[in-house]
Amino acid sequence: MLRPRRSAPPWSGSRTSIDGQPVIQFEQVTKRFGSFVAVHEASFAIGEGEFFSLLGPSGCGKTTTLRMVAGFERPSSGRILLDGRDVSRVPPYKRNVNTVFQQYALFPHLSVFDNVAFGLRSAKVAAAEIRRRVGEMLDLVHLPEVAARRPNQLSGGQQQRIALARALVNRPRALLLDEPLGALDLKLRESMQAELKRIQRELGSTFVYVTHDQAEALTMSDRIAVMHAGRTEQIDTPPAIYHRPASPFVAAFIGNANLLEGRVAGRDQQRVTVDVAGAGRFAVVDERDGLPAGTAVQFMVRPEAMVVTRQEPHGVGGSVAVTVTEVAFTGPVLRCTGRTAQGAELSAEIGPHGLSVAPHVGEQVWLSWAEGAAGIVPHDGRTAVPARPSPSEPVPSSGTPGERI
Ligand SMILES: Nc1ncnc2c1ncn2[C@@H]1O[C@H](COP(=O)(O)OP(=O)(O)O)[C@@H](O)[C@H]1O
Ligand SMILES: [Mg+2]
Fold first, then answer.
1. Which terminus of the chain is less hemmed in, N or C, by CB atoms within 10 Å?
2. Helices (H), strands (E): how many in the chain?
3. Where are the domains of the chain?
4. Atom 12 in ligand 1: which residue has the minimum CA distance?
5. Architecture of domain 24-243 in this structure
6. Which ligand lies nearest to the CA atom of residue 178 in the structure?
7. What kind of fold does domain 256-378 have according to CATH?
8. Contact status, residue 325 vs residue 339, Cβ threshold 8 Å
9. pTM for this structure?
10. Rounded CA gap, 310 and 136, in Å?
């Protein structure tokens, strides 16, 4: 039997909280290479059984962060704890974590079985136990039939599954994955995402997953840390990151968003009115404190939240009249871009239930949205208090140190 997941019931989807002691904890961790700061004061905690992603563009410090967990790099300052123990002076081979890289790094001269068995043989595990555990791992990755083959007789996706089996066979406390699907084409990558998620769920293990692909991170993660130039800009669940980005960088990096400069005009409890450059005054719901009248913010509406009509809509959260500047066929939706008379540019997606006759360039249409669909993004995400989840979403446990920045 594989180890059952300890805390989450099998039907639970995303985990949002940390139960008990974190498996991995960063305390004010900074990593410098000379005078260059690759990771700036990272503070977060990863819980048992969590699928935690480090997401950001190339060069933002993801690999460096992961390498510090593995012990291949040492923090310049701050502490990293594994299971509550400071591992600053613990070498990589004594840390109970394993890493899977984009390059499969299997031994070409060994069979699949011997590749997976490698770590157990080094640890002097008895032969019968090795057979049992390797068999269990090959079953887990759905490749029991390839045990006798050499790596070069496997496809890329199969090799990556074997690399995964090899990294999991000695039951690490956390599996660290650095862009493990980066070498695979899109279709295979998507099926491997589902596979990885299934394996993580079945084992109940802690996965720390590095990717620059925001769709991949949204699909797979319980929580995501969005990194930008060495800084952690936001740590939250995928829906919270998508719907309530804490900074302009996060808003622009995750999905498509209409982002317009604005200024808070007033606030009535959680109802904030915003003057949006070139578009008008709109109300949004915002749970953040600390954004008084006059605060410069970005106003955000996702293109898929927009409705396109030929008549002025009524009873909506907000609307603007635009002249259509571009209509693009993308497959599932038509993307319609327009400009207001004052020069603000906005995009909307028209799905199969939208306008029956596509708008044409030069036509005037109305773009509208429900009040809850628009939001504001503070310019300095690190000083604003992060939004709390709405009541319909699971509430993260409070009091986990360093969970948010
Ligand atoms: N050993 C090193 N020496 C000097 N600079 C490094 C070293 N490792 C990484 N860097 C720099 O640190 C930054 C972050 O790198 P990395 O963590 O690999 O980013 P990512 O994985 O997000 O692409 C990059 O600018 C990179 O050039
Ligand atoms: Mg990297």
1. N
2. 8, 20
3. 24-243, 256-378
4. 38
5. 3-Layer(aba) Sandwich (3.40)
6. 2
7. OB fold (Dihydrolipoamide Acetyltransferase, E2P) (2.40.50)
8. yes
9. 0.87
10. 60
